[in-house]
Amino acid sequence: MKKLISMFVAIACLLSCTFAMSACSDNNANKSYKIGVLREDDSSGEAAAWEEYLESVGKSMNITFDFTTTSSSESEVSAINTYASKGYDGILLFSDDDVIASVNAAAGKKMYVVLPTGHPTDEQYNQLKDIPYYLGSVAPVDDTEYQAGYDMAKFFVETKGQKNFTIFGGATCYAVSMHVQRLAGILAYLCEDSGTSYDGVKTREELVGKVAGAGVDPLKFTSSVYSIKGYMDGFAFDDAFSTKLTNSLTAGGTCILTVGAGDAVTGIAFGISQGAKIENIMVGGVDAITSAYADSFDIGYTYDCGKFASAMGPGLVLMMSALEGKKIVDNDGNAPKVGMSYWVATSKEELNDMLKSDNKTDGFCYNKEVLDHFIGNTYEEFLKLCSADYSDAVEIFNEYNK
Amino acid sequence: MRHNTVMRYLKKAGGIAVIPLLCLVAMMIACAASGTVLFPDMNIWQIFFRGLTYVLLLSFGVSINLHTGRFDFSTGAVMLISGVIGAKIAYASGLGPIGMLIISIIFGAVFGAISGGLYISLRLPPMVIGLGMTLVLEGVVALITDGLKPVKFGTDASYYKFVTNPLAMSIIIVISLAIMIVVFHYTKFGYDYRALQNGQKISVNVGVKENKNALICYIISGAFLGGAGALSLCSTNGVTPTINFTTIGTMFSCFLPLFFSGFISKFCNKQVAILLGCVGYEIIQIGFGQISFVNAAFTADVYKVIEAVILVAFLIYLNNENKIIEIVTLKKWLSGKNADKTASDS
């Protein structure tokens, strides 16, 4: 009888254990997460592509994303508190009004924070790296931006044979680092010619110092090979802007290099070229790989470099790894601060291929299967995902979607 | 007697022409000092006519409500949505730029009627109605553009060519001016409008229908803003719509020409004064572009600050005109001197 009772108890224990384990594994499989996204830009093509990516991947991975547009540090902190009160697990912080205040607010509520589109400054990073809820940042770094400008100028000189330029400096006048670095990259490539310099300087550091907050003065650009016919920056596309662009195009600066807002500049330049009967204008830009630029290729846009929809993938990997208890840290044990590669399209077909491999309808390049491999994986594996250009990204997709 | 009449006409002509001429001379001198010229070729004239027509339609649209104390913040939103709808319909159906302009004007009038209807039915301050309408219209723009996707004309350059055609723009200017003069100076609606402008309570007491007048104002204003929206969209060969009150700033670009017209209208018809104010403003715009092209330090921010300084200086002048004239002409001093002389003579 005792044996029978002990056998019965053993079977009951075994069964309850099995039930508990299966329930536990079911729990993991069906575990859902809620992540708040704070952003300042909710209307650009890039913002729309990222929203589509997060919602689509979120659906397949049981993650709910909620988007809030903020305009100040106070509104960021307020939104973080609201998400905390609703039981959200983490924050993707796109905006950068006051990173320290936002991360501290989230950490105070035990919510993880990732910066998927920008980096804290070195000073900010030193304040953030020891906060356990700060998971890191993944975005193009200054070197990436500089290289993007450099490669664009190189493409137009070496592949397209261009020598006379119009340059659009975007937010360089406000010393926005991203645009300054891209512009310095353009100038640095041109200054590789021995007879070319800008205001007496040629190197990256010197060029950054010259153009940050000041832009480019075409008169200070001396070269026996190249010319800069006109320079404009700021985002007021008014009649004064049209006047300058018209003058520059009629003076022969028909190759326009832009460090942002390339689609807007292309539209205006196309109109001017048609009205003034100027032939063969071509525009290159560092901005985003979005469908908006595909149409621009029909009216003179020739080179598109930028972030893509799946660029949110690495940030999501950092967040999900932490939520599943396998936080990814760098080799020093700190939150990663990792650069990210841009994709580059030099024809409409190439851009359409990229868009086809990375969209809501046909599927995203960094889909659930790809992310599943990288979530909770090593830092070295994570770096592979971040540094992938378009061909690497396709390889990664193929490898984990067999 | 005849001398007085001639002097009166000369003073009138001088008053009418002084601001555009002052702008022209100042910009020509500034351009020459910078080593460039104001109008080097036909391309810049095209931009001038395009900009003048756009800012004129915008100024007419804003002035109708502004001059009766209704500050309508939905100006930019009406322009955006009318331009976007006009562009989408015209481009899809091949109606071209003139078709687009007409569609935008119609939709502008419709959205104006909605704003006006809300204003007279809800009795809320126009600013509140304007802000509410801005949010609604920007939201509708986001819906019809499938999440703020750019609205473009592909490889069809006819839209841009239309706005850079000085003849087409001149025709629009003449028609707009004629409509404004006839409607606001030669119709019962126009008389009522001006009566309400000068004394709302008295006008209502003598039988002027304020609500009907306000509604028509909003409709006409909307139509002009729709036209301005179409021209704006053609000028940049498309638009990437933005939301969250970003359209509000659009209306402020017509404040300088409207303040200019406040001075010029002392000497001529108010609508003609608005046109001349716009001419002066557009000359400044072109001049700033030319100077900025040759002088890298003269950035967009610098000329925006200068534009703001001109605006403030002009406001100060308008509000202290008599005192300033007294100081400049030494009137008080001279009259004091004459009085002393008369006293000593006697």
What is the rounded distance between the termini of chain B?
31 Å
Helix content of chain B: over 70%
> CATH topology of the largest domain in chain B, which one?
ABC transporter involved in vitamin B12 uptake, BtuC
- Kindly state the number of beta strands of chain A: 14
**What structural class should be given to the helix and strand makeup of chain B?**
mainly alpha
Categorize the overall geometry of chain A: globular
How far apart are the termini of chain A? 56 Å
Radius of gyration of chain B: 23 Å
Mean pLDDT of chain A: 91
Number of domains of chain A: 2
CATH class of the largest domain in chain A: Alpha Beta
- Rg of chain A (C-alpha, Å): 25 Å
Largest sheet of chain A: 6 strands, parallel
Q: How many structural domains of chain B?
A: 2
Output the number of helix runs of chain B: 15
Explain what the structure shows.
The complex is a heterodimer of chains A (402) and B (346). Chain A has 402 residues and is α/β, with parallel strands linked by helices. Chain A folds into two domains: 33-138 and 310-342 and 360-400, 3-Layer(aba) Sandwich (Rossmann fold); 143-307, Response regulator (Rossmann fold), CATH 3.40.50. Chain A has 16 helices and 14 strands. In chain A, the strands form three sheets. In chain A, strands 2-1-3-4-5-13 form a six-stranded parallel β-sheet, with helices on both faces. In chain A, strands 9-6-10-11-12-14 form a six-stranded mixed β-sheet, sandwiched between helices. In chain B, strands 1-2 form a two-stranded antiparallel sheet. In chain B, helix 2 (42-66) packs antiparallel against helix 10 (210-235), helix 3 packs antiparallel against helix 4 (96-122) and helix 7 (166-185) crosses helix 8. Chain B is globular. Chain B contains 15 helices and two strands. Chain B folds into two domains: 2-293, ABC transporter involved in vitamin B12 uptake, BtuC; 299-346. Chain B is mainly alpha-helical and 346 residues long. At the A-B interface, strand 9, helix 9, helix 10 and helix 11 of A face helix 2, helix 6, helix 12 and helix 13 of B.
